[in-house]
Amino acid sequence: MEVLSHFVRVSISEYFRNLPVPDSFVGFARLTGTEWLTLLPFVGTVSLLIYVTIQAFKAKPVPEDTKVNRKIQKESSKVVNMVDIEDLGDKVSYCRCWRSKKFPLCDGSHTKHNEETGDNVGPLVLKRKGAA
Length: 132
Ligand code: FES
What we know:
Elements: H1 2-17, H2 25-29, H3 33-57, E1 91-94, H4 109-117, E2 124-127
Antiparallel strand pairs: 1-2
Bound molecules: FE2/S2 (inorganic) cluster.
FE2/S2 (inorganic) cluster binds next to helix 4.
Family: Belongs to the CISD protein family. CISD2 subfamily.
GO molecular function: 2 iron, 2 sulfur cluster binding; metal ion binding
Organism: Potamilus streckersoni
């Protein structure tokens, strides 16, 4: 702890005290090459901190790939499909990958999606008891 304390109280303060920081912006033009080299680590560190801070607060666009629904009823705030249970028939497959062109029914598009992305999604199959 003593080493750290000495480093913070003495070494760092001596480093800052010896930095050839001019009193005005015009003074930067009068710095020698050696003075610029002395300033380089400090300017680089400050620049890096500014860059990292800006990057942390910069709004990042949401990549399209993070959205499950890429194209179905995008004008709606929420996609809801109602199906009368009497209309289900003996067997029906509902899409869960959101890639079907017959949404909400499955058209097999999940196969291509799974091949392209390594995903493993598939339909919800509703089957009447005893149906094939
Ligand atoms: S097409 Fe989406 S689950 Fe089959």
